[in-house]
Amino acid sequence: MRPAELNALRANAATAKAWLVEGVWKVEHAFERSKAQGRVVDDTRLRICFVMALFGMAFVTLGIEAGRAALLGKAGGPEEAAAPPPGARADLVDREGRLLAVDLVHYGLYLDPRASWNIKETRAKLMAALPNLSRERLEKALRSDRREYLIGALTPSERERVHDLGLPELSFEEEERRVYPVGESASHLIGFADSGGHGLAGAESALDPEVREAAAAGKPVALAIDLRVQAALEDELRGIMRLHTPISATGIVTNARTGEVLALASLPDFNPNTAGQSPPANLVNHAAASVYEMGSTFKIFTFALGLDSGVANVNSTFDASEPLKIGDRTIHDYHGVNRVMSLEDVFIHSSNIGTAKLGLRAGGERLKRYFDAFGLLAPARVELSESARPILPRTWNEDVVASASFGAAISVSPLAVAGGVGAVMNGGNYVPLTILRQDGAPKGRRVISPEASRAMLDLMRANVLRGTGTKADAPGLRVGGKTGSAEKVIGGRYERSKLVSSFAAVFPTDGPVDATRYVVLITVDEPKGVKETFGFATGGWTAAPAAGRVIDRIAPFLGVRRTPTAPFAAQRQAAAPAEEVSEGTL
Question: Cβ contacts of residue 56 below 8 Å, gap of 6+?
């Protein structure tokens, strides 16, 4: 308030005070005159009028002050906003503002048995109103000689139901509770917080400082995920779980240009509202915290480094007519083609022999340097604290280089693979993954040339048209991809019947090399072959079809338009039947 306005208010207050004092004295003199003249009725009337005048003045004063505060005051403005309670957390929302996590007022219920009229009635009514109430705790409280806590996290409707019991010994206290409106959806990405407001997993843990700061500012924290994309991904993964009954299934959808994680799912999952009641195994985020030998999806990186370094080009050939022997070890193809193969043939037939020869041409130092540039030799660069370290070879000798080139001898998380594939497909820039919504594309770090990236996009598309990834095609969306089927190590030996099957997809593969495109990675741990897949459990039969369905469903949400499919259909008719197309494995 300005000094002039303050002085004016003071002057007005002094004038009002003087007027009030003068008025009181006049009324008092009137009372005295009425008594002296014996007019008691007039005296009473004057007193009533005086009291009414005082009340009237009080109401007028209150009305004036209320009006001034409403029109001129700052009440309710951000400067005077109430401080958030200790442990308060900002809302988490998806990229379109849909609510993912929110602090809501709940209630704790207390009982003071000293105020109870009928303990038997109290017991019966409470157990009927709150079936989840611990009978042991209730009995302890009923026998106590002081006020006891019974149960917390009551919703407003539950509080109302208990309040309506009319039991004087019950009372309530407000509690802040973190609520996750979408339940199990995106549970491993969103995570959860404890009752004290500390993030324990997922984004709640990784972004804990940001969430607290945003709460103080009264703003939400926007994550990169899109709930529509998330729902489609989870639905297809649940289909895999039902059909192939694997140990787990994970899915990741990223924007290759910005690094944004648009969806992340790991099944089995859990409900963050009741995380403590979930089996511990369900709390593991297999997309981030588990590492696998990924098999032939790693060939994406070997081919990218080969093309970028000049070790190979689109006209290069590789002799895969015989198994490759390195020391006392022999490398085979899953279904041998037994001929000299072009670079494209090695890729679309997923030849281990051809890929190993490409890796050996590059050499251990170059292979290791490029793998590091793709983010494969360290935990995935993402905010999630669950991001696991890879299991790396101790030495990079010839045997290891040959194995690592087609996805053996090195175990990494699916998140790390998704980040690396994005770098290969976005024009050659490594952009760290992020779970936060981005306003634009970060600069990134160049790892391969735009020309090598363009060649890889073409190879990925060719593999979906004529190779091991045909079951991932989605009409009109120009999908590219690479299958992977890695045998798991059990008791120190590779077990052929236990696979980690995967499919890394990119779409659309056409357009400028630096255009916006999306990566979809599906990973399935020990899927079972079924009648519908003719007993096969490889990536081409389990992960690839699911990736294609995910892409088909999410493309409209991402603004990817379909184009006529007739030319592609004609090419696919000339391809070998899917069950006869070989797939690289160890």
Answer: none
Predicted pLDDT at 585: 39
Q: Considering 34, 266, 296, 387, which one is annotated as catalytic?
A: 296
Residue 386 within a domain? yes
The number of domains in the chain is: 3
Beta bridge partners of 505: 481, 520
Short-list 333, 324, 313, 424, CA closest to 371: 424
Check which CATH number belongs to the domain holding 542 and give it: 3.40.710.10
Q: pLDDT value at position 108? A: 86
Calpha distance 433→223 (Å, rounded): 12
* Three-class DSSP category at 257: coil
DSSP string, 514-560: TS--EEEEEEEESPPP-GGGTT--SHHHHHHHHHHHHHHHHHHHHTP
**Cβ contact 316:304 at 8 Å:** no
In a domain, 166, yes or no: yes
How far is 557 from 325, CA to CA, in rounded Å?
Answer: 49
Distance from chain centroid for Cα 508: 24
Note the pTM of the prediction, 2 decimals.
0.80
Parent domain of 74: 3-80
Q: Which two tokens stand for residue 489?
A: 């190590």
- 3-state SS assignment for residue 198: coil
CA distance 255 to 433: 9
Residues paired with 487 in a beta bridge? 499
Contact 438, 260 (CB under 8 A): yes
Could you tell me if residue 327 is inside a domain?
yes
pLDDT for position 508: 97
Among residues 487, 456, 458, 482, the alpha carbon closest in space to that of 469 is found at 482
Can you list the residues of the chain whose pLDDT is less than 70? 1-86, 335-336, 565-586
389 located within any domain:
yes
Do 422 and 546 sit in the same domain of this protein? yes
The reported pLDDT for the residue numbered 19 is: 54
Predicted pLDDT of residue 576:
37
Q: Which amino acid is at 344?
A: E
Q: Is 185 a catalytic residue?
A: no
Whole-number pLDDT of residue 69: 55
Q: Give the per-residue pLDDT at 31.
A: 53
CA distances from 363 to 357, 366, 400, 401 (A): 10, 6, 11, 7
Return the H-helix or E-strand segment holding 202.
helix 202-206
